C-alpha cells in the first residue's frame, strides 16, 4: 500500500501594502487660505467649561483672551495641588512634674512645705556650737552611674572694656545692719555682678579701681564685698610658687600686675583696696589655717608646735568687727590645680565658724570671740570630723548641725544622718533646694526628707565596713536639679540622666 501524500501547507497571507509616505518638501508653501502644504490647520482647543460659582468663593473670575481662546485663571488656580501637610512638632521632654505617672502622684502625695520659723535674734558667738574641720580640697567621689559635668570655664583673651558706671544707674541697696539684717542671708547678687565688670587688664590705678568698685554702694559691708568678689575673679593662686616653696614678698601693685598671689598677697591687696575705699579699720592677720594638706591628729600623736602658714583680714564693717579670708574665698586647690570660683562662705562666716579653721599667732584677740580665747591645743587637737566638700558651704548648709558630727562610723547597724541650713532665715521650701541622698557600699541610695524642724534627715542601714557619702542631685537631663521632689527623684533615678555633687563623707571606723 502506498503512503498517502502529506497535506498541503497553509498559505500565508501576504501583508497589506504599505501606505506611501509623501516626501517632505524642503520649502514650505502656503496657499491663500493659510493651508500649509495642503494640510488643514489644527482645530482650536475648546475652552474649559466654566465652574459653577460658589457662594463662599470671594475670588472674582478674571479671564484673559489669547486669540480665540479664553483662560479662566480662577479655574486654573482651583486646580492647584493641595498644600503639603505641616510636619508634627518634635516631642517635648516632660517636665519634672509631668514625668511622674498619675498613679504614683496619687500614692505619694506631696506634703505642703513646713511653715517658715520666725526670725531669731542674733546669737552671741560664744554660744555657737563647734564646727568641723576645713573643707577638703579633694574632688568628691563620683557616684556610680552616668554623670555629666559642667563645661570648663573659657576665658576670653581680650574682652572689651566695661562701660563706665553712670551715677543715675547706681544700684540702690539696703544697708546691712547688725540689728535688722542677717549677713548670712543678705542678697549680695547686685554687688557681685558689679564687681565682675572690671577686669584687671583695664585697671589704670589701684585708687581708680577702688573707687569704681565701691562708689555705687553706701554701706561698708557692700564695699568690702565688692573688693572680695573682684579678687575671686581676677587674682589666681600661685600654685607653682606654693609647691616649689619659692614664695616672694608681694606688694598690692605687683599682685595686680601679675594676677598671681598666695594667701599673703590676697590679704595685702584686700587691705590696700579697702583703705583706698575709705574703710579705715582693716588689718592683716597671720597664723595657721587648716587648708590644703591639713590632717587631724591621730590618737596618741604628740601635739605639734604652732605653725605659721596662712594670712587673712580683720575689718570693721558698719560698726561690727569681722574676719574675712579673701584667699579661700577665691577658690581652692584640687590636687595641684587651682579651682577658681567665688566662695561667699569666708565673707559671711561668724567668729566661731572662722576660728575653727583659723588660729592667729600675733594676738589672741584677733579671734574676735567674746569669751575666753581658744588655745592652740584646743584648736589643733579637734576630733576627727567628716570630710566636707566645697558645695556644702556653697549651698549654705550648717556644719554645726551635721550629724553624725564625728568621723569613724560604727557600721553594721542603722544610723541617723541630718543636715540643715546655716540660718533659720534661709528657705527650706522644696522648690528652693536640691534633693540630698546617702550612698553606701551596697549601692543603696536613700534620700533625706524634711524633718519639720528646718532640716533634712534619714535613718539607713550601713553595711559593715561601709563608707557613707552624702550627695545632692545637681542636674536632671542637663537641667538644674533645684526644685526636684523626693518622689520625683525616686521615680526618675535610673530612668533619667542625673548629675550629682558631693556634700560630705563619713569613713567607717
From TrEMBL:
Basic and acidic residues bias: start-end ranges: 63-75
Where does it sit, as one GO cellular component term? Answer: cytoplasm
What Pfam family is a match, any one? Transglut_core
Task: List compositional bias (Pro residues) regions by residue number.
Answer: 1-23, 109-120, 150-165
Q: Which Gene3D superfamilies does this one have?
A: 3.10.620.30
- Read off the InterPro entries from this record: CAP/Cytokinesis_protein, Papain-like_cys_pep_sf, Transglutaminase-like
Compositional bias of kind Low complexity: 92-108
Q: What is this protein called?
A: Kyphoscoliosis peptidase
Chain spans, region Disordered:
1-172
Amino acid at each position: 500500500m502506498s503512503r498517502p501524500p502529506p497535506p498541503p501547507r497553509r498559505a500565508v497571507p501576504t501583508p497589506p501594502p504599505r501606505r506611501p509616505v509623501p516626501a517632505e518638501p524642503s520649502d514650505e508653501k502656503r496657499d491663500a487660505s493659510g493651508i500649509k502644504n495642503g494640510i488643514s490647520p489644527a482645530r482650536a482647543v475648546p475652552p474649559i467649561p466654566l465652574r459653577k460659582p460658589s457662594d463662599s468663593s470671594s475670588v472674582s473670575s478674571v479671564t484673559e483672551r489669547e486669540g480665540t481662546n479664553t483662560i479662566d485663571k480662577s479655574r486654573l488656580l482651583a486646580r492647584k495641588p493641595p498644600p503639603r501637610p505641616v510636619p508634627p512638632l518634635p516631642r517635648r521632654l516632660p517636665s519634672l512634674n509631668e514625668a511622674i505617672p498619675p498613679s504614683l502622684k496619687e500614692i505619694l502625695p506631696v506634703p505642703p512645705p513646713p511653715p517658715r520659723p520666725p526670725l531669731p535674734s542674733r546669737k552671741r558667738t560664744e554660744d555657737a556650737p563647734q564646727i568641723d574641720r576645713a573643707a577638703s580640697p579633694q574632688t568628691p567621689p563620683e557616684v556610680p552611674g552616668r554623670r555629666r559635668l559642667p563645661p570648663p570655664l573659657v576665658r576670653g583673651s581680650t574682652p572689651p572694656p566695661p562701660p563706665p558706671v553712670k551715677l543715675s544707674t547706681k544700684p540702690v541697696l539696703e544697708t546691712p545692719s547688725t540689728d535688722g539684717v542677717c549677713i548670712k542671708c543678705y542678697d549680695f547678687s547686685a554687688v557681685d555682678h558689679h564687681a565682675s565688670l572690671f577686669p584687671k587688664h583695664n585697671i589704670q590705678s589701684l585708687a581708680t579701681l577702688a573707687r569704681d568698685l565701691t562708689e555705687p554702694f553706701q554701706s561698708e559691708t557692700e564695699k568690702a564685698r565688692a573688693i572680695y568678689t573682684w579678687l575671686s575673679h581676677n587674682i589666681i593662686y600661685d600654685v607653682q610658687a606654693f609647691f616649689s616653696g619659692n614664695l616672694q614678698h608681694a606688694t598690692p601693685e605687683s599682685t595686680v600686675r601679675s594676677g598671681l598671689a598666695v594667701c599673703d598677697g590676697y590679704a595685702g591687696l584686700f587691705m590696700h583696696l579697702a583703705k583706698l575705699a575709705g574703710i579705715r579699720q582693716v588689718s592683716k592677720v597671720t597664723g595657721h589655717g587648716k587648708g590644703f594638706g591639713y590632717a587631724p591628729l591621730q590618737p596618741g600623736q604628740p601635739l605639734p608646735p604652732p605653725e605659721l602658714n596662712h594670712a587673712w583680714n580683720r575689718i570693721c564693717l558698719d560698726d561690727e568687727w569681722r574676719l574675712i579670708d579673701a584667699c579661700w574665698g577665691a577658690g581652692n586647690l584640687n590636687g595641684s590645680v587651682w579651682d577658681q570660683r567665688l566662695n561667699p562662705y569666708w565673707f559671711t562666716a561668724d567668729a566661731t565658724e572662722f576660728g575653727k579653721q583659723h588660729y592667729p599667732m600675733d594676738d589672741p584677740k584677733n579671734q574676735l570671740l567674746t569669751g575666753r580665747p581658744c588655745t592652740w591645743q584646743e584648736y589643733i587637737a579637734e576630733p576627727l570630723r567628716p570630710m566636707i566638700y566645697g558645695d556644702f558651704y556653697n549651698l549654705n548648709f550648717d556644719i554645726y548641725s551635721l550629724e553624725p558630727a564625728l568621723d569613724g562610723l560604727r557600721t553594721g547597724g542603722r544610723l541617723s544622718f541630718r543636715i540643715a541650713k546655716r540660718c533659720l532665715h534661709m528657705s527650706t521650701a522644696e522648690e528652693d533646694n536640691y534633693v540630698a541622698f546617702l550612698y553606701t557600699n551596697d549601692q543603696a541610695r536613700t534620700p533625706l526628707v524634711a524633718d519639720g524642724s528646718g532640716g533634712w534627715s534619714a535613718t539607713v542601714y550601713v553595711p559593715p565596713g561601709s563608707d557613707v557619702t552624702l550627695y545632692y542631685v545637681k542636674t536632671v537631663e542637663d537641667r538644674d536639679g533645684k526644685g526636684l521632689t523626693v518622689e520625683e527623684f525616686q521615680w526618675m533615678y535610673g530612668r533619667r540622666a542625673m548629675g550629682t555633687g558631693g556634700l560630705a563623707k563619713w569613713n567607717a571606723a
